[in-house]
Amino acid sequence: MAFHLKTCGSCKLSDADGQQINVPALSLVALTFLFQEGRPVARRELARLLWDREDCVASTNLRSMLRRFASAMPKDGEPLLLIDNRDIAIAPGMLTCDLGVLEEPDPTNRLRGLCEHVSKGFLQAYGQNQAPLDKWVRSVRIALVRNLRFDFLALCDKPGANALKTDLKHAAILLLEDDPQDEEIRQALMTHAAPEQALEAVQPKLTAVLKAPDQPTAFIADRAVSKAALPRVALLPPLELDNGPNQNSIAGALIEDITIGLCASRAVSMVAPYTSEKIAQSKDRASLLKQHDVAYVLDTKRSGDYLYVQLIFMPTDEIIWANRFGLDPGHSSNQRSVISEAIQSSIIDFTHGHSPTLNDFKANSEAYCAYLTGLQALSKLTLPSVRSARRHFKESLNIQNKFSHALAGVSRTLSMEWVLTAQGDTDLLVEAERVASIAIEEDRQSAEAFKALGMSRLYLGKIDESLQALAEAEHLSPHYADVLCSYADSLTHGGDPKSSLAKINTAISLNPISPDAYFWSAAGACFFVGDYHQALDYINRMKDRSPALRLAAACWGMLGETAKARSYRSRVQKDNPQFQLNQWLSVVPLKETWQIELYREGLKKAGF
Fold it and tell me: What angle, rounded to 10 degrees, do the helices at 497-510 and 516-528 form?
């Protein structure tokens, strides 16, 4: 019985029938090392590699692992490993491995196999640290990239290279992800792999935006310096392609064109399509983006005949550019060229303009990480989450005490706590306003700081000053959806719910997978234009409806649904037994008397 070892992406061992064998994870690494070495390996050498120590503990661990490996293997047939007191080896003819692609005689098949290895990652779970095992994994990855580069250039020089355009394009993108400064690969991509319409749109703009000095074409084993020099961009593909094969083809080909065009640029470093697709599908995008050092994300979404795109600056989670493009199957080639050029130009322009901010974040990575953790905590509108976020923002400030985004975060949590507790604690808002003002003093270009100031002033009843601060925030970052959401909230409280609805709908279109705060804000605006059913629809779209229970009760009260209104009132009183209607209405910031009376009427009909 022969076995097959897969090392590309996830690592697993299968029998001759393709059934996975559940052996210890480290034994798979040991098998990979033995296969790659192609020789008997001393037990002591293997133990040192796996456990990074040379003592009896490593030897004991190895014996234990080998026993568990043997017990998991099929009992019939020849053994896979030949083990004696000194050495360990793979039995001849008993194991095939996807690393065998290096011995593939056909250059096209070898190129395809190497592309799969480089894109999915050799022994993906390892290689991040400085232990001997991690260093060995990295050395194999470097060798795979080196072989891919050699085969790519060799195939480009052969007659008939155009027939391999798809494979060459894939290889070139992977190689430029590994080393964005490789001019020889970039030139080969533009000559042999890029579609003509992509080149026509890309070439004039990209060469003009940022000209870099000529780079050496020799293969560079350690690319840490070149990777750090350029901002990383991940282009996330639209996952909701649902309107027929023609439009699906347009969207897919368009993203391909954009990727190729940006790979041809010297201004950014692109994340390869396979990795971008995994990021788009992940439930924990933030950690993957951090792992791959992504500074900018181009998020894309298909809806009907339109492709929506938004460029997000990851250190602040800020939408710095957004647009939508119509998809017309009848004009696919020219349309792709125009849209591709527009998106590429915007990415290059905005990443170049944001480079000082990005450098600042990289220089203070620990403060940045604490700040991001605080942002993640704020994804839930609960009191524990808000207070947890504040702790992380303060941790960020302990590392960098003039970090304006962390200051703005602290201010934001204080304002949110005032809303969630509904106790009218003015001290929270005074402190929120003070901290937001300090954030603005530190960085007058921070839309986040002006947004935090606008929030605190709104709840302090300074509605006109709140609108002024939020207008400045929108001016600084017109596509920042969170700013538009806060602006919409202030417009509602300022007696202009119709303008608020327009603003919040824009925010939702910019950030289609919207957080609960967007729907809560939209529900409030709907309540004050008298559309109670629509307000309830927005509340029902919230993952956690508890912050909007008072509003839901008022909506049902105005609709005459007394039983439903009172059930919501009971939930409010259970969550906040100290809630008093008159006290709350005396502090809630509503500019117009008719708004206060309408809200009072709804809450009274709900039984408050």
Answer: 160
Gap between the Cα atoms of 255 and 513, Å rounded:
20
> Strands across the sheet with 3-6, in order?
20-21, 12-14, 3-6, 95-97
DSSP 543: S
Whole-angstrom distance, CA of residue 139 vs CA of residue 574:
60
Mind giving me the DSSP string for 179-211? -TT-HHHHHHIIIIIS-HHHHHHHHHHHHHH--
* Residue (of 494, 493, 549) closest to 516 by Cα position: 549
- The per-residue pLDDT for 585 is 86
Closest CA to 224 of 270, 182, 265, 178: 178
Total Cβ atoms within 10 A of residue 352: 13
Range 244-253 burial, b when 16+ CB lie within 10 A, else e: eeebbebbeb
Main-chain dihedrals φ then ψ at residue 372, nearest 5 degrees: -60, -40
Contact 399, 366 (CB under 8 A): yes
Alpha helices in 299-364 (DSSP H): 332-353, 355-363
Amino acid at 289: L
Sheet holding 87-90: strands in order across?
41-42, 87-90, 81-83
pLDDT confidence band for 205 (50 / 70 / 90): very low
Look at residues 478, 480, 566, 568 and name the one whose alpha carbon lies nearest to residue 523: 568
Closest by Cα among 238, 152, 247 to 193: 152
Question: In the predicted model, what is the mean pLDDT of residues 554-566?
Answer: 93
Identify the pLDDT of residue 497: 93
Widest distance between CA atoms in the chain: 89
Question: Could you give the C-alpha distances from 379 to 29, 140, 311, in angstroms and in order?
Answer: 38, 40, 20
The residue with tokens 């002006």 is 450
* Whether the Cβ atoms of residue 111 and residue 171 lie closer than 8 Å to each other: yes
What is d(CA 380, CA 387) in angstroms, rounded to the nearest whole number?
A: 11
Question: Which pLDDT score, from 0 to 100, does residue 245 have?
Answer: 44
Average pLDDT over residues 136-160: 89
Lowest mean pLDDT among 275-289, 441-455, 526-540: 275-289
Distance CA 592, CA 608 (A): 21
Q: Report whether pLDDT(354) > 80.
A: no
Say what the pLDDT of residue 226 is.
43
3-state secondary structure of 159: coil
- The residue ranking higher by pLDDT, 281 or 135, is 135
